[in-house]
């Protein structure tokens, strides 16, 4: 095992998984956290009173994890909430790690040493980066690799980067917990609160003169098709509101015209 003093000096990661009737997807997420070789991990499963086998899977996972030598802290909470982003805020309040990331049921950490490599990427950085980010693989329901995420993370990320779209997947975006807690999700947004949250976290990191660290790692295997894919149009309208708030009306309009032209051009090439 890792000596107590050594453990004390280690970066601790909090992973938050919000679930509601996620019995079909949760296992692959918990399996991927369970096999992390890195010891300093807190995994909060914030459940919205599921009626399927979600809580059974979660408590079995906690039992197995508690028996491991490098036991991670698994915390299971089941309570009614006001939807996904409210559940995320509830999870955030409980987080005690240095960094926090949201991993949905069905998403997973790609390798057993993903968090170990991420901790190594931070090294002895002072001040601690405001955000750690990386790339994302898109996988199918069987966990098979389909392709890299279309939007690739930039070499140098700033809060202005998201004017070009959400260049870093929410699940590959680790926020310094102190900043994350100070900027909870805005519950006025039903579908794009994650975009808004990432931008606000990066703005706050900038204000604190903290770097945003590109880990150059694939940090997540992301299950194809999320909530906003199913509500595509409403999601786009809401995203426009988010972008306008952060970047102003004219830059946002200009970028949207670029998106539309690109989409038309792509359709023409495919015909």
Could you characterize what this model shows?
The chain is of the alpha/beta class. Strands 1, 2, 3, 4, 5, 6, 7 and 8 form an eight-stranded mixed sheet that branches. α7 runs parallel beside α9. It is globular. The model has no long low-confidence stretch (mean pLDDT 92).
Query: What general form does the structure show?
Result: globular
Structural class: alpha/beta
Helix content: 40-55%
Q: Termini, distance in Å? A: 59 Å
* Uncertain residue ranges: none
List the total number of helices.
10
The overall pLDDT average reads 92
Radius of gyration: 19 Å
Number of strands: 8
- Note the main sheet: 8 strands, mixed
Percentage of β-strand residues: 15-25%
Order of helices and strands: HEHEHEHEHEEEHHEHHH
Provide a quick synopsis of the model:
By secondary structure, the protein is α/β, with parallel strands linked by helices.
Quick tags:
single chain; 271 residues; 10 helices; 20% strand
Layout of strands and helices, then pairs:
Blueprint: H1 4-8, E1 13-19, H2 26-34, E2 41-47, H3 54-67, E3 73-78, H4 84-94, E4 99-102, H5 114-122, E5 131-139, E6 145-148, E7 173-176, H6 177-182, H7 193-207, E8 212-223, H8 227-230, H9 232-247, H10 249-270
């Amino acid at each position: 095992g890792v000596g107590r003093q050594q453990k004390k000096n280690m970066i601790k990661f909090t992973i938050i998984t919000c679930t509601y009737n996620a019995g079909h997807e949760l296992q692959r997420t918990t399996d991927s956290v369970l096999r992390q070789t890195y010891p300093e991990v807190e995994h909060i499963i914030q459940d919205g009173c599921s009626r399927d086998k979600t809580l059974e899977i979660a408590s079995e996972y906690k039992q197995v994890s508690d028996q491991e030598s490098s036991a991670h802290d698994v915390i299971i909470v089941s309570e009614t909430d006001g939807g996904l982003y409210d559940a995320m805020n509830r999870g955030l309040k409980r987080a005690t790690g240095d960094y926090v990331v949201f991993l949905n049921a069905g998403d997973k950490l790609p390798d057993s040493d993903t968090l170990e490599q991420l901790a190594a990427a931070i090294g002895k950085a002072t001040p601690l980066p405001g955000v750690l980010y990386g790339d994302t693989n898109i996988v199918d329901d069987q966990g098979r690799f389909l392709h890299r995420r279309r939007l690739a993370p930039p070499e140098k990320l700033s809060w202005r980067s998201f004017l070009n779209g959400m260049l870093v997947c929410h699940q590959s975006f680790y926020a310094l917990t102190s900043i994350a807690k100070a900027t909870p999700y805005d519950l006025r947004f039903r579908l794009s609160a994650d975009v808004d949250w990432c931008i606000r976290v990066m703005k706050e990191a900038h204000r604190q003169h903290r770097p945003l660290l590109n880990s150059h790692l694939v940090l997540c295997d992301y299950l194809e098709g999320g909530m906003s894919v199913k509500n595509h149009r409403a999601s786009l309208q809401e995203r426009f509101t988010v972008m306008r708030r952060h970047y102003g009306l004219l830059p946002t309009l200009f970028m949207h015209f670029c998106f539309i032209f690109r989409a038309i051009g792509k359709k023409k090439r495919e015909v």
